[in-house]
Amino acid sequence: MRRAREVELALGPRPDGVSLQHWLYSEIRAAILSRRLQGGARLPASRDLARRAGVSRGTVLAALEQLAAEGYLVAVVGRGASVAADLPDQAPEPPPSSRPAAASTGARLAARGLALIEETPFPVAAPSWPLPAFRPNQPDVAAFPLDLWRRSAARRSRLTRVDLLADGEAQGYGPLREAVAAHLRQSRGIACEKGQVAIVASVQQALDLLARLCLDPGDAVWMEDPGFPGARLVLAAAGARIVGVPVDSCGLDVTAGRRLAPNARMAYVTAGRQAPLGMPLALDRRLELLAWAEAAEAIVVEDDYDSEFRFRGLPLAALKSHDSGDRVAYVGAFSKMLFPALRLAFVALPGALVDPFAKALSLTCRYQPTAAQATLFDFIAEGHLGRHIRRMRLLYAERAEALRDAASRRLGGALVIPPILMGLDTPAFLAERRDGAAIVRRAAERGVEVRDLSYYAVDRPAPAGVQLGFAALAPAAIDEGMARLAQALEEVR
Amino acid sequence: MRRAREVELALGPRPDGVSLQHWLYSEIRAAILSRRLQGGARLPASRDLARRAGVSRGTVLAALEQLAAEGYLVAVVGRGASVAADLPDQAPEPPPSSRPAAASTGARLAARGLALIEETPFPVAAPSWPLPAFRPNQPDVAAFPLDLWRRSAARRSRLTRVDLLADGEAQGYGPLREAVAAHLRQSRGIACEKGQVAIVASVQQALDLLARLCLDPGDAVWMEDPGFPGARLVLAAAGARIVGVPVDSCGLDVTAGRRLAPNARMAYVTAGRQAPLGMPLALDRRLELLAWAEAAEAIVVEDDYDSEFRFRGLPLAALKSHDSGDRVAYVGAFSKMLFPALRLAFVALPGALVDPFAKALSLTCRYQPTAAQATLFDFIAEGHLGRHIRRMRLLYAERAEALRDAASRRLGGALVIPPILMGLDTPAFLAERRDGAAIVRRAAERGVEVRDLSYYAVDRPAPAGVQLGFAALAPAAIDEGMARLAQALEEVR
Questions:
Q1: B297 and chain A: CB distance < 8 Å anywhere?
Q2: For A18, A95, A102, B281, which has the most beta carbons within 10 A of its beta carbon?
Q3: Would the pTM of this model clear 0.80, i.e. be above it?
Q4: Residue A97 vs residues A21, A22, A489, B324, B391: alpha-carbon distances, Å
Q5: pLDDT (tens digit per residue) in B362-406
Q6: Taking CB atoms and an 8 Å cutoff, what residues of chain A touch B356?
Q7: Using CA atoms, how far apart are residues A332 and A166, in angstroms rounded to an integer?
Q8: Contact A100 B351 (CB under 8 A)
Q9: How close A432 comes to chain B (CA, Å)?
């Protein structure tokens, strides 16, 4: 018996960086799991094991104790350790250590799981850097006053109280919610109080939760057509039946929406600056949309993603500023106002959704990181947010001009860029019919990133053209990019 | 006509803190929306308006321009501004400024929205502070080396490159994922690589996404009974059919699970330390569970919430360390290891779920804040995480002893506390039948927070007793709390 056991306990070589104790533990564990050591078999005395393995007896005892705690061994007083007798026969082989188990094909996704991953509107890998011309939807992070932010963060971290390390409120850090409400009152004309505001990680998270709260699978949602795929896909993944509603020069065609899906439960609208076409939703459309929402008891989600950056005058009042019926969930993010990797966004909610939203957020995520919320609060309270937005309005306005100027000099009328009144990017319409996908491809070969407007199509073809970002690009980069884009356009006739 | 218009344009008083321009804008807007100014009506000349309002003509022009941009006015060359003619009749009244619209009862929640908010396992408001004895599941944030953390954060923010402000990877910051993989290899015996790791905000977010990826509504999930309501409710809200599987002294009764729901698509298990009863899942059960999961093609979610804190020897190997069939999604969080408000957690995924998980995370949330991820990476790379956990093991072990000691001195056997081998809290079983809810209530009246074990019940009654947290409490607070708990127990006979 003794000899058989000793054969079974042949110890493999110790890999680099593995402690003696862990090596011994792993070898014995592997021997048991592979049935080289059978249930009930007695282990050699710890003294003998120590001698054979060339380790101290303390190390052996620690390894055996670990194995006993994990159920591989049982200790019998006076007789040392034995292999546990009750391991099931179907014990799987342990995976080879420090390599992941082979990717199985077994993890079956659910049908709705497939809907979650069917299309990815955002790059899953970190996007390339530095930013190429003309990637849309990008603020200029290089113009962000990082020093001021660091100062707020450092001050905050000096002041950090221990209770800010403990769990926070699901709805968000109170002072930040108050600061957001004040900003929305002042800058967007929204009658808004702290109690209505929830802090979320992103617009995507807000849309996801609103859909799951307000929609049952199959419920219809009005989606601007063309419109933002990030919204379309997250709503569809939540089971919404997406109804593309055409957009004309006044924005969402509410009359068409009433015809296509009068009983929709939700409408998604970029009222401040239609994504991707750029016009604000006209006043009569706004009022018509709200009247419909009241009658249909639908929720209107206003995604105000970049209309803070209006280049002349003040930003236009938000759709929610007309929301006497309390049907609008207004969603905004600090990604464009400050920088994307901050990952803080906010919702001004209809009264009836405040409590449900906080509960749903708590269940599916809990709350946003307190340190970042507190730093952001300081940054706003010190006036830096307002100043930064005002500076960026001037900077981006110059760049919008530079874009239109470069286009008119370089493109010979091939792309028509309407006046740019606000935002970080613009549509550029093809003067004559050309293959948009080919333009995107040819531009990419020249290091220029443009987005085909068909990316935004829902139920009908989008206007022929591309989307060009300008806000993050210095005028020289705009001009250089435009020269390359001109070459690409040349090639696609 | 002129006179009528002038009557309609009666201007209300200017509220404090509102600029002249905004006041004028608001008054005219309100007059139009309320039909005091009718469609087509001509406004007085800007010069007259300026005189009447007592403001400069520039202010009037800025206000009128804003109103024109928002569609309230149309400008006719040579004739000044007129009210837009095409406002719909059903224009809602604007909400009174700087008060939120009255909470409507109109926001109908969807059926599955109600499931999201039916029960709230976490406090939606920030929990009271300082921490009362014996709130469960709390690390000692006062023992967190905040100075070291601040140093990592400051160093990181000095080094921050601009590209770290731009969008990051959905799966998480690469260096942090590598550090997490190394930690899991070393501390939990998991054969794990960076590519399998995703960084999430919380265990809740991981559970939510795993459910939505792997379960269609109505699919069965094994849930430990008693078991963690945070998991039960988020899985149920995602449409899972929860099957409570009994727990005995060896943890989840896998044989019972196979009988109750052989074709479940998922099993949720706290293998390291059963929540709330405290025992690890026995080895034979582990192997049986994995064998079932392979045969049923089910996913096992291992929630390893606090078994890092094992008081003697090393932490037990994770269930996932046996996962040769690649069926286990291992979920852990830094909330207990570091501090809750950090809001970073991680999943070690089966190979087949890596890509779907990253895509689903990207669609429903995007990615976690880069600065916090980078600071955490530095903190781990500098060895602070490992050291902090080792320090806390010693500290929490002392407090576990203090708890058992105080209980045996103070409670006269009314509560039976089993040996505490790890974790932040312990079950305490009632020696004789008493009303758990009454104990909780009486204790609360004395400022002591205990949790009835029935909080964890799924399909069958939980053992009679309460859960006591000890890790965040100094021995004196433990003793004082126990004295009060003894009084509460006295009153509930």
A1: yes
A2: B281
A3: yes
A4: 15, 12, 54, 10, 28
A5: 999 999 999 999 999 999 999 999 999 999 999 999 999 999 999
A6: 109, 113, 116-117
A7: 27
A8: yes
A9: 31
